[in-house]
Amino acid sequence: MTATELPPSLLSTLPGDAYTSAEVFAAEQERIFEALWFCAVRASDVETPGRFRTVQVGRESVIVTRSRDGAVRAFLNVCRHRGARICTEESGEVRRTLRCTYHAWSYDLDGRLVAAPNLATMPDIDRQTYGLIPVHVREWLGYVWVCLADEPPAFEQDVIGAATERLGDPTAIDRYQSGDLAVGRRIRYDVAANWKLIVENFMECYHCATIHPELTDVLPEFARGYAAQYYVGHGAQFAPTAEGFTVDGSAGVTRIETVAPEQDRRYYAVTVKPQTFINLVPDQVIVLRMFPLAADRTVVECDWLFRADVVEAGTDLSRSVELFHRVNQQDFDACERCQPGMSSRAYARGGVLVPSEHHIRAFHTWVAARLGGTGVAGTA
Fold first, then answer.
1. How confident is the model over 156-180, as pLDDT tens digits?
2. Are residues 116 and 176 both part of a single domain?
3. What digits encode the pLDDT tens for the residues 261-289?
4. What's the domain count of the chain?
């Protein structure tokens, strides 16, 4: 049966090689991750001048740091002399300069070349021209977003607009005060699956009754198969017996005081393409950032954000963290079970989407448009 012969209840997915092909993944690196805004690091990870983190954005290693004037900066992690990595550690702190350990070319925190052996004997070298290659940066929700494109897309439309459109109210996400919250816990997951499988999983809840018993106990409507993202502006209501968004339904921690009454006892989920998931409940914000490293490998970093006074007081966050940690483990295990099937002849032409998953087709269409049809013919 071809895609055009499917009954109305079913829509076709992407073909299997969209999840396995090195060629498709290379195109995604260039045309998606290196072309769009990418949520890189929590701003508090580079809170003071000289602190840095390195992240993989498409094919590039990027240094995110803070200069002496307090501004966030980002650069390609490549020395302009012979191409060595400047920062070989994932995170750290420098006193004054970013220094290449190969030939000691050194750059200030604004990226300008400030020192190199025998530099004084080369007066024709422009220190700005031979500085580190800058990357566009924006701060939003307490995160640093970077874009490698020469001309980045409109942040207000592609990032802020994506979140506010989903919530149906441009002020709704601001009430969670994400930029003022503190990281209560961070867990990193190394997932043996294609990044698109993770996006698709996050967008639907057809699987929730099957693999998320703890989540459906707290959010019983998810057991019916419709995810929070299916309806614009809809937040899944807590079960009457659930006191908070915790693994056992017990009371959570101190509520974010600016959350509106209509947002109380509700869970909202937002996907900001290409690699960020935002989860909103009254006492915490959970942010997941994907770092696709290969067609079959994606690192996901998950932050649980709480009121700063809650974190500073040493509050026990275990029950709050454990609920979504289990959800993550369950989801990523499911994605890893799907990944081998993407190479099977049984999935060569793809699978199908049932009605509660039909909205995933918009994501597939978006991917195909970004790639110009490269390797994703199953979206027609």
1. 999 999 888 889 888 999 999 999 9
2. no
3. 999 999 999 999 999 999 999 999 999 99
4. 2
Among 122, 140, 158, which residue terminates a domain?
140
For residue 338, the tally of other CB atoms under 10 A from its CB is 17
Size of the chain, expressed as the number of residues it contains: 380
| Rounded Cα–Cα distance for residues 297 and 286 (Å) | 22
Q: For tokens 């974190």, what's the residue?
A: 311
Does the pTM exceed 0.90? yes
Contacts of 145 (CB under 8 A, 6+ apart): 37, 38, 39, 40, 137, 138, 139, 155, 159
Measured distance between the N- and C-terminal CA atoms of the chain, rounded to whole angstroms:
15
Q: Residue 22: inside a domain, yes or no?
A: no
Tokens of 256: 């974010």
Residue type, 341: G
Q: What range does the domain containing 196 cover? A: 170-371
44, 183 Cβ separation under 8 angstroms: yes
Q: What is the amino acid identity at position 346?
A: A
Does the structure show a pLDDT above 70 at 228? no
pLDDT tens by residue, 58-89 = 999 999 999 999 999 999 999 999 999 999 99
